[in-house]
Specification:
Low-confidence stretches: none
Helix content: over 70%
Mean pLDDT: 86
Structural class: mainly alpha
Number of strands: 0
Number of helices: 12
Shape: globular
Length: 299
């Protein structure tokens, strides 16, 4: 049974890795792409929760505003991610996601009011050095690296604050309101900047690809990952999710060919970053086991 859960986990991580591929295949601007991705994903999630599972989506107003705020951060995370792909390529955008480790080591202690973990900071700094090497080796992609860094920053902020509200309502409701909230913020941006007409400037091919992105590569893996948390340890989950850039970069290499071929320094630096993230996960797992064994038993 455990092997089947691990197989399902690797499958959804593979799907997440493929989102970058779709981001490059979709020709419309990043902001229009995110607008449609969030609108379709919110619709699919609503139908699943209310029609298929027949669950309530009622939440308090306070929680609603919090989820809208977190959803807006998610929207910017996706916006910068796809913009990075548009101005550079898939490999650059995915490699920059590794900076989330550094950002998490700095932001999480502030939000959860705990002391910084210096191992996390050191590993984060190693990743910064690797990103610097990539920047110097791939200077022509400096704009993509800039947006990739912003993507990692907003992704970390989203994850940290998402952890703060976990358990206050069902996971389905959290995901639905965050995505719907992000869509609302982007819609208001289009409305107040007078760019609402740009939403209609999209091809049928792009619409079809975005529907695929919103359903198979967004709504489904989000729900599946929540289900798997009941059967797989957080360490295994986090460690496997870190393979997303690996899957994405390999797929991009074979699908897009020359446009994704990078310098040797890029691949060496990316490998070092992935190893650093895995080492971080192993250290945390060992610490957790040690803490559990040293805790006194209360009868």
């Amino acid at each position: 049974m455990k092997n089947s859960y691990l197989l399902r986990l690797h499958f959804i991580v593979f799907l997440w890795g493929f989102t970058a591929i779709l981001g490059k295949l979709i020709s419309t601007d990043a902001n229009v792409l995110v607008f449609y991705r969030m609108s379709f994903a919110a619709a699919f999630l609503y139908l699943y929760i209310r029609i298929i599972k027949k669950e309530s989506i009622k939440i308090t107003k306070v929680l609603l505003f919090k989820l809208i705020g977190i959803g807006s951060v998610m929207a910017f995370h996706w916006l910068f991610f796809f913009q990075s792909i548009k101005v550079s390529n898939v490999s650059i955008a995915l490699s920059c996601l590794s900076l989330s480790t550094l950002f998490a080591s700095l932001i999480e202690p502030l939000v959860f009011k705990r002391k910084p973990d210096w191992i996390e900071v050191v590993i984060g700094l190693i990743i910064v050095v690797c990103i610097s090497l990539i920047f110097n080796a791939e200077l022509k992609y400096k704009e993509g690296i800039f947006y990739g860094i912003l993507c990692a920053l907003f992704g970390t902020i989203f994850s940290v604050f998402n952890g703060k509200i976990f358990g206050k309502t069902s996971s389905g409701n959290i995901i639905f309101y965050e995505i719907a909230g992000g869509w609302l913020v982007i819609s208001l941006f289009f409305l107040f900047t007078g760019q609402i007409s740009s939403v209609s400037e999209i091809s049928y091919t792009d619409i079809a690809l975005i529907v695929l992105l919103a359903s198979v590569f967004t709504a489904y893996p989000m729900f599946e990952s929540v289900k798997l948390m009941k059967f797989i340890s957080p360490f295994t989950l986090i460690l496997t999710v870190n393979l997303e850039p690996v899957y994405g970069i390999i797929l991009a290499f074979f699908i897009f060919g020359a446009s994704e071929h990078m310098s040797p320094i890029f691949y060496i630096a990316s490998l070092v970053m992935i190893i650093a993230i895995i080492v971080n996960g192993i250290i945390k797992s060992r610490r957790k086991k040690e803490d559990m064994t040293t805790e006194p038993n209360h009868l």
